[in-house]
């Protein structure tokens, strides 16, 4: 199989973690005779510095013409005070997701047994956790109308949370279909006791639920969900929620897996899907080879699964990660007593070796 992949390292640790995911894919390619062709392009602050815009036309074109996109991370303090349309977040990543029609962001929250002590949460609480959070990605609070105006006494700032029935149905359908292939439990998270958009969300999801009588549907307020995720995460199978709620809940849920550096993501729904770790550019550790590349390598596994239908190959990456963790290798964020501290590159090397060695 020949696969054209756009590689967008972006900012901060992006340039350190993306090469490790490429290494893993190349190992898979060598082992199974697939050809992964990587073309690198600029995005975020790196693009802004080089060509003056955070999302160059050329980058967007490359993504559209590729079979999948692998992204590192964007943003950093250097660009924080720019006008919003130039900032890496609002000026590159959000429009890229929107332009590619990636309305669904899948974030698996899985605990690897080897990392059970890496989490700050109690063992018995997190053991056996396997949650898939489906975050709506091209609507909601992130994409509604925004305004900032001067008033006689100061300023007024407005963000709008907008959803249409169609947008809710689209993401909810994907969530029901996904739940059907798992433990058949779907929890829809909203704030329907306060927000009108959430009331429409809840009505729409409930209505669609009639088509899925085999899936157990529950509704939960987002504040309660935040609490339940740390109280007893095992109660969840699939969670579907609004864009911002999903952003916040997944950072929180990542601690169940030991570190934000373990949380992969797949953004799907368009012709070309995008794979990126759920974490940010971590400017505080950028350039120090400390970053954990596992979230990005796991995102590459999701790419093999969702974009190329290469299930066996995807599992090879996942198993390689398990073996490397079982052997005790740890980046700083998941380091424990008795662990073998490795840097970003070494972690990538160990994983690539395991991919090649495993039957
Ligand atoms: C994420 C990130 C992004 C988001 C930022 C960088 C815009 O936090 O992918 O979770 O909020 O979507
Ligand atoms: Mg986030």
From TrEMBL:
Gene3D superfamilies per record: Isopropylmalate Dehydrogenase (3.40.718.10)
Annotated positions for site Important for catalysis: 142, 191
Binding residues for Mg(2+): 223, 247, 251
Bound cofactor: record note: Binds 1 Mg(2+) or Mn(2+) ion per subunit.
Transmembrane segments: none
SMART domains linked: Iso_dh (SM01329)
Positions annotated to bind NAD(+): 76-89, 280-292
An example molecular function term from Gene Ontology annotations: NAD binding
UniProt keyword Iron, yes or no: no
Necessary cofactors: Mg(2+); Mn(2+)
One Pfam family here: Iso_dh
Reactions catalysed: (2R,3S)-3-isopropylmalate + NAD(+) = 4-methyl-2-oxopentanoate + CO2 + NADH
Keywords carried by this UniProt record: Amino-acid biosynthesis, Branched-chain amino acid biosynthesis, Cytoplasm, Leucine biosynthesis, Magnesium, Manganese, Metal-binding, NAD, Oxidoreductase
Gene Ontology biological process terms from the UniProt entry: L-leucine biosynthetic process
EC number from the UniProt entry: 1.1.1.85
Quaternary state and interactors: Homodimer.
Function, in words: Catalyzes the oxidation of 3-carboxy-2-hydroxy-4-methylpentanoate (3-isopropylmalate) to 3-carboxy-4-methyl-2-oxopentanoate. The product decarboxylates to 4-methyl-2 oxopentanoate.
Name listed for the protein in its UniProt record: 3-isopropylmalate dehydrogenase
Source organism per UniProt: Thermincola potens (strain JR)
Gene assigned in the entry: leuB
């Amino acid at each position: 199989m020949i696969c054209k992949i756009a590689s967008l390292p972006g900012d901060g640790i992006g340039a350190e973690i993306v090469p490790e995911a490429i290494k893993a894919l190349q190992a898979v390619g060598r082992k199974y005779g697939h050809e992964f062709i990587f073309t690198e392009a600029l995005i975020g602050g790196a693009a802004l510095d080089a060509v003056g815009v955070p999302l160059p036309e050329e980058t967007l074109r490359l993504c559209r013409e590729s079979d999948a996109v692998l992204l590192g991370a964007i943003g950093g303090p250097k660009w924080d005070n720019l006008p919003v349309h130039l900032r890496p977040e609002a000026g590159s990543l959000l429009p890229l997701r929107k332009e590619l029609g990636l309305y669904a962001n899948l974030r698996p929250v899985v605990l690897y047994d080897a990392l059970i002590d890496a989490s700050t949460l109690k063992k018995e609480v997190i053991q056996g956790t396997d949650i898939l959070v489906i975050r709506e990605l091209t609507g909601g609070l992130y994409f509604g109308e925004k305004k900032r105006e001067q008033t006689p006494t100061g300023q007024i700032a407005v963000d709008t949370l907008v959803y249409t029935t169609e947008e809710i149905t689209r993401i909810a359908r994907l969530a029901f279909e996904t739940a059907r292939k798992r433990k058949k439990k779907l929890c829809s998270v909203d704030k329907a006791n306060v927000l009108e958009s959430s009331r429409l969300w809840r009505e729409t999801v409930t209505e669609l639920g009639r088509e899925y009588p085999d899936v157990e549907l529950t509704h939960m307020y987002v504040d309660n969900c935040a609490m339940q995720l740390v109280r007893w995460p095992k109660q969840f199978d699939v969670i579907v929620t609004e864009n911002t709620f999903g952003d916040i809940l997944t950072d929180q849920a990542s601690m169940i897996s030991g570190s934000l550096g373990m949380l992969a993501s797949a953004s799907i729904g368009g012709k070309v899907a995008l794979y990126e770790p759920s974490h940010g550019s971590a400017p505080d550790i950028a350039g120090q080879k400390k970053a954990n590349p596992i979230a990005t390598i796991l995102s590459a596994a999701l790419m093999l699964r969702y974009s190329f239908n290469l299930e066996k190959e995807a599992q090879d990456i996942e198993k390689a990660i398990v073996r490397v963790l079982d052997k005790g290798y740890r980046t700083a964020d998941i380091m424990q007593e008795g662990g073998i501290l490795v840097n970003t590159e070494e972690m990538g090397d160990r994983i690539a070796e395991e991919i090649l060695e495993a039957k």
